[in-house]
Design a protein that fits this description.
By secondary structure, the protein is mainly α. It contains 3 helices and no strands. The relative contact order is 0.14.
Length: about 70
């Protein structure tokens, strides 16, 4: 019989996680902080196919230009 394993490192809500990462990216102070968040988004994108969180971060950073 299969067993279930709780993955505590996974976000409890995909939308909430994505929103939080975008907020942290927009509030990041400095290039290194932004790069660290982009790396986190890239890791998320590799394990969650679909709409790319990395693209959302970059688009959010453009503000009214996008």
């Amino acid at each position: 019989m299969p067993t279930l394993t709780l993955i505590t490192s996974a976000p409890s809500s995909d939308a909430a996680y994505r929103t939080d990462l975008i907020r942290r990216y927009l509030a990041a102070e400095g290039e290194f902080a932004e790069l660290a968040l982009l790396a986190e988004a890239a890791r998320y994108d590799r394990s969650n196919p679909g709409a790319q969180l990395t693209d959302e971060l970059l688009g959010a950073g453009l503000g009214d230009v996008a």
